[in-house]
User: What shape does this take?
Amino acid sequence: STADIAALRSSQLAGLTTDQVGALSTNQIAALTTAAVSGLTTNQIVALTTGQASALSAAQVLALTTNAIAALETADFAALSTAAVSSLSVNQVKALTTGQVVALTTNEAAALSTAQVAALSTNAIAALETADLSAIKTAAIAALTTAQVAALTTGQVNSLATASVAALSTAGIAVLGTDQVVALTSSQIASLSAAQVAALSSKAIGAIETADLAGLSTADIAALRTAQL
Assistant: This one.
């Protein structure tokens, strides 16, 4: 019964075969204690159905080991609730595969905390769909590391809201490549602060399209360093 399953200890749950795990009802999955869930093996995680994965609570997902998180099949990860995804620890986020990151919904991306976004690997950052990247909080965009900014694809850069571009740190702006700068729209260029413009490399300045240069303010132009001109 569900009560019997809920009483299982982690060592007992770990002893179930993959067939037994796959046969558990969604109610039985939801009834598992967090202590028991923490004992799930990677093979057992792989055996979960999409319906079972969707039954996992935020607390249960948080209790999974990093290996277990990484073992979640893409469809199963996509079935997790927004609350479950937003509950992931920094170490669990670091364990996410690119396939799992692609599977994020826009609502899940919007729910990610600054710490979670900062924990994404560069490969994970580059795998974010443009709609999901656009949904990430401005504060999280501002906290992107230089390695993460450098990993953004041109399509991702082009999709950023002007508020997100304006929120990029000067250190992040400094590592933008020429292709990334070319991908910026006129409105994105116009959203840059004088400090951000001053942080652009000379190659990046040279890559700004002529039409986009018109978007720079007098203060932006005044902030240019000799090496940039």
